[in-house]
Fold:
Amino acid sequence: MLVLGIPLGGFLAYQLSGEKPAANTGSGLSATSPLTAFRGGFLVLFGARMAGGCTTGHVLSGMAQLSIAGFLFAAAVFAGGIPTALLLKRRWS
Structure:
């Protein structure tokens, strides 16, 4: 169920949101297209299966155990995630 559930969940969330796809920005896909939602769900699924869990689980369980590696991983997630989010927000604004 996990293998099919994550991509299908991304697609269903898009369908139930009632949003219309944004105008094409020249990249071939809009920011909210069904294909983009499916690809994003698949990438999350692939990364979580490859790593043996999701980043949130690794951060929470590592920090709950007071593991130095857990804290370092959490810092790395935020150090990479915040600039990426700002870059993508600027690109799609």
User: Anything to note?
Assistant: The chain has a mean pLDDT of 76. DSSP finds four helices and no strands in the chain. The first helix runs from residue 2 to 17.
